Amino acid sequence: MSSPPAQQKEGSATTTPPSTDEKPKKKICCACPETKKLRDECIVQHGEDACTKWIEAHKVCLRSEGFNV
């Protein structure tokens, strides 16, 4: 009897692997330290409005790590 539920789980897992397989492997605070540092320094020195380039670069990096930002 355990075979049919396993098959159902496999079938449902097959329809949703992007969300399952793309889960981040690390915490968001530890991901993309390079872009995070550049973003944070820019915001401190110039303000958020002047740093959209670095903010977007950090978001792109986070998305590549599997975060939904």
From TrEMBL:
The keyword Metal-binding applies. Its main location: mitochondrion. Residues 1-26 are annotated as: Disordered. GO terms for molecular function: copper chaperone activity; copper ion binding. GO terms for cellular component: mitochondrial intermembrane space. PROSITE patterns: CHCH (PS51808). Cu cation binds at C29, C30. InterPro entries: Cys_alpha_HP_mot_SF, Cyt_c_oxidase_Cu-chaperone. Keywords: Chaperone, Copper, Disulfide bond, Metal-binding, Mitochondrion. This is Cytochrome c oxidase copper chaperone. It comes from Papaver nudicaule (Iceland poppy).
